[in-house]
Write a structure and sequence with these properties.
The chain has 212 residues and is an alpha/beta fold. The protein folds into two domains: 5-16 and 92-211, HAD superfamily/HAD-like (Rossmann fold), CATH 3.40.50.1000; 18-89. It has helices spanning 18-32, 44-50, 55-62, 68-89, 97-105, 120-128, 140-143, 147-157, 170-179, 205-211, and strands spanning 5-8, 15-16, 92-93, 109-114, 136-139, 163-167, 183-186, 198-200. The strands form two sheets. The protein has a six-stranded parallel sheet, sandwiched between helices. A two-stranded antiparallel ribbon has the order 2-3. Helix 9 (170-179) links the parallel strand 6 (163-167) and strand 7 (183-186). Helix 3 packs across helix 4.
Length: 212
C-alpha cells in the first residue's frame, strides 16, 4: 500500500489499556456516590466493547440512569482520573511495536487520531516512550468532531495528501472512508470486520504492508 503518511488509531491498535481503564473508572464511579450508578462495575471487556466511540456516547451507554448532564460530568471525572492512573501503570504494548514504528518512521510520517479525551494520547506517548516516532496527533477531545472529520482536520493541518488509516474496528474503517483514505485493519485488536480489506494479523505486518 502506497502512503506517504500513516495515521494510527490508538486503543486496540497501538496499545490495550482496557483492564487498567476499567479499574480507574470503577474507582471514580464508586467515589462519586451517585445513586444512578450504584452497583455499576465495569470490566476490561466492557471497555474494549466501546473503544472507538466518542466519550459522550460511552457515557450514555454506561450511565443510562443519569441525566445527560450528569453523564458528561461523571465521564469527565473518569477521563481525568484515567489519565492520571494510566500515567503510572499504562497499558499493554504489542509485541514488536517499537521495531515496527521505528522502521515505518524511516520512510513515512506517523500520526495518531483517536476518539479519546485530551491528555490520553499524551499518556500513551509518555508511557511508551514512542513520542519521537510520531509527527503529530489529534483527538475527539481536541476537536469535538467525528473521527473521520478529525482525520480530515489533521490532514489539513499537516498538509497530508496521501495517507492510510490503521485501526481495529468497523467504526475506524468508516472513519477512514469518510476522510477519503485507505484503511488497514489491525486484526490483532478488538474489532471484527467482514469483507475484502487489507489486514495486519500482528503489528509487525504493517512493515510489509507499507514498505513492499
Amino acid at each position: 500500500m502506497k502512503a506517504e503518511s500513516i495515521i494510527f488509531d490508538l486503543d486496540g491498535t497501538l496499545w490495550d489499556s482496557s483492564e487498567n481503564v476499567a479499574s480507574s473508572w470503577n474507582n471514580t464511579i464508586e467515589a462519586s456516590r451517585l445513586p444512578g450508578v450504584t452497583g455499576v462495575k465495569l470490566s476490561g471487556a466492557d471497555i474494549r466493547g466501546v473503544m472507538g466511540l466518542t466519550m459522550d456516547v460511552i457515557a450514555a451507554k454506561f450511565f443510562p440512569k443519569l441525566s445527560p448532564e450528569a453523564q458528561i460530568e461523571l465521564m469527565e471525572k473518569c477521563s481525568e482520573n484515567e489519565n492520571d492512573f494510566l500515567a503510572g501503570c499504562g497499558g499493554r504494548l504489542y509485541e514488536g511495536e517499537e521495531e515496527t514504528l521505528k522502521e515505518l518512521a524511516r520512510s513515512h510520517r506517523l500520526f495518531i487520531v483517536s476518539n479519546c479525551q485530551q491528555g490520553y494520547i499524551e499518556t500513551y506517548l509518555e508511557y511508551s516512550g514512542f513520542e519521537h516516532y510520531f509527527t503529530d496527533y489529534l483527538c475527539w477531545g481536541d476537536t469535538g468532531l467525528t473521527k473521520g472529520e478529525t482525520i480530515a482536520e489533521l490532514m489539513k493541518r499537516r498538509n497530508i495528501t496521501n495517507a492510510a488509516y490503521v485501526g481495529d474496528t468497523a467504526s475506524d474503517m468508516q472513519a477512514a472512508r469518510a476522510a477519503g483514505i485507505p484503511f488497514v485493519h489491525a486484526l490483532y485488536g478488538f474489532g471484527h470486520i467482514e469483507g475484502d480489506i487489507v489486514r495486519a494479523e500482528k503489528i509487525s505486518d504493517l512493515v510489509g504492508i507499507f514498505n513492499e
